[in-house]
Amino acid sequence: QVQLVESGGGLVQVGGSLRLSCAASTRAFSSYPMGWFRQAPGKEREFVAGISKIGLSTYYTDSVKGRFTISRDNAKNTVLLQMNSLKSEDTAVYYCAAAPVVSDYHNPRDYASWGQGTQVTVSS
Known about the structure:
There is one protein chain. By secondary structure, the chain is mainly beta. It is about 0% helix and about 50% strand. The strands form two sheets. Strands 2, 4, 5, 6, 9, 10 and 11 form a seven-stranded mixed β-sheet that branches. A four-stranded antiparallel β-sheet has the order 1-3-8-7, with no helix packed on it. A hairpin with a 4-residue loop joins strand 7 (about 70-75) and strand 8 (about 80-85). The model has no long low-confidence stretch (mean pLDDT about 95).
């Protein structure tokens, strides 16, 4: 198990930016593909972005492509989600997740460890 703690959520205006950070408590951080998911009230959890073990590959859901950037710093055991041009539809609780192995970055079942979530609210 990997302990994950998200931070950086908050209230921003439409068009604004926010950067989420996920800190992992493991000495084998580079062994884990990482992902960001989000869940809005009354809606299913959805994939937002994923990143491979050393960051060579990234994946995004269509709705955030071009606006969000996922990155990782394995020396600091962190994965980041830079969110730009925020829309009201981006309002959700955002979760960081770590996978022992990944067959499909979009599949939450591939992820074994989850953070507690951080709230992102985009005001219109």
